Amino acid sequence: MTPHVDVVNIAEKLRQFGEHWQPKIVGELNDSFVKLVKFQGEFVWHHHDAEDELFLIVKGSMRMRLRDRDLIVRPGEFVIIPRGVEHMPVADEEAHVLLFEPKTTLNTGNVSNERTVPKLERI
Amino acid sequence: MTPHVDVVNIAEKLRQFGEHWQPKIVGELNDSFVKLVKFQGEFVWHHHDAEDELFLIVKGSMRMRLRDRDLIVRPGEFVIIPRGVEHMPVADEEAHVLLFEPKTTLNTGNVSNERTVPKLERI
């Protein structure tokens, strides 16, 4: 039998949790994780020294604040934040987001505070 | 100004091409590309020696044939095919698919034939 090959339904995974800003691992490939997360309100300004991050909006919309401008990201759209670029995700209403990033990525990047989630749950 | 940070609208990118089985690069992060591709009909049996591949269905549905079973993958669902696992994508009707895979990944993996696309277009 072929191991570890399963179809993942994104909406079904999103129904399994309600917390905001706590990414859940839903897939793993090469050196990266696929994560799902729910955003609401403001996160924290941070950057990642060595990792580029992809944010794909599944539901709702988000504002990705950069130091010189804001980007609005809507369902069916994604944005890639390159390493070193300071950013702050903001969601005025709840947004459901798929993340694609290296396994080493910490959600708050260079910042450590009450929003930091060092060990992510797999669902 | 913060460079190279743009929102990508998946549907808009998909409107820019019509060919089947010719992945287009729409994003780049870390060692990977984000690609969009349209499937119709049967592809070829192949595997990738050193790369895991993610297929996220945007529109339509696909059947991912494995040697011991078939997986149906629908919009809002994804499947990760680990390195070494033989697979053949099949789409009875046209399917639009987002791929996430290492930059080194060749679409036909270990096989080289008329379906092989050695140099991918960026859109």
Helix content bin of chain A:
under 10%
The total beta strand count of chain A reads 9
Biggest beta-sheet profile of chain A: 8 strands, mixed
Q: What percent strand of chain A?
A: over 45%
Rg for CA atoms of chain A: 14 Å
Low-confidence stretches of chain A: none
Give the SSE order of chain A as H and E letters.
Answer: EHEEEEEEEE
For this structure, the quaternary state is: homodimer
Task: Report the end-to-end length of chain A measured between terminal Cα atoms.
Answer: 23 Å
Number of helical segments of chain A? 1
Largest interface: A-B, 43 and 42 residues
Summarize the structure.
Chain A contains one helix and nine strands; from the N terminus they run βαββββββββ. Helices cover 4% and strands 48% of the residues of chain A.
Q: Could you characterize what this model shows?
A:
The structure is a homodimer of 123-residue chains. By secondary structure, chain A is mainly beta. Chain A is 4% helix and 48% strand. Chain A is built from one helix and nine strands; from the N terminus they run E-H-E-E-E-E-E-E-E-E. In chain A, strands 2, 3, 4, 5, 6, 7, 8 and 9 form an eight-stranded mixed beta sheet that branches. Chain A is globular and about 45 Å long. The two termini of chain A are 23 Å apart. Chains A and B meet through strand 1, strand 2, strand 4, strand 6 and strand 7 of A and strand 1, strand 2, strand 4, strand 6 and strand 7 of B.
